Records
---
Amino acid sequence: MTKVMIFGNQEPHSIAIRQSLLARNVPLVLYPTKKNETMVLTDAQWEKVIQGDPNDLGKILQGMIGCDLVCLSGVQDSRVTWRIMEAMKLLGLKRLICLIEPADISRLSGMFSDGSGLQKQRLSRQMELSVGLIEESECDYTFLYLPNSFPKCSQTPNPQANKKTRFSETDQQVAELIAQIVEEPAFLINRRLYISSEG
């Protein structure tokens, strides 16, 4: 059975990913990306939270033991990314999914074209460093770039309410794509995908 470690927060898309994986009986280890942040469990039977400093390599290793895949959501600090890469290397863990959220993108750095006519914003310096660290590592990565107009839905600290959250089509699209990668780890290896907000 595949076990997934998620570095993330309480954003709607993170909750959608967790619920999609839990529906497939995938055990999860959750690691908040902000110090002292509290993660609300959706299903205490299948989810475990590791509370600790995101820069604590020992804590990261503790949570990562036994996992088969790592998902980064909302990791903006390249120092945290480096520690995650080190933990994966020490444990021989290869498969990584990295979500790049709108909040991770610098609005001051302008736009660029990828040659296909699509316009995308340049990454912040921290995200550029993080992406570079991942690309230079020996892991099998997939980058998912979330749209700048990524829709938000209301959040609540009540775990039961989280189960009833109505997610946007983009939330669901990302969650289902990640579930597919978890089920087929070779799917989309070393690829970048730009998620559309139009569904």
---
Amino acid sequence: MKKITIEITEEQYVKMTNHLQKGLALNVDNETFSGYGLNLKCVDGGLASWLEVESNGTLNLGDVNWKIE
């Protein structure tokens, strides 16, 4: 089995967790349930890769490094 590893900085991690916590708070306030999505975006040829987090809106975390092992 292969695994995908996405490396993010500490700053990106903090932004992501804050965004997810705000989404959870909105869900609790509105008595709703929803999940979140992580979208790895890539330009052909390895020119650029970035990560987006979707949860009550989209947060672009910026450039990331990733690999398949």
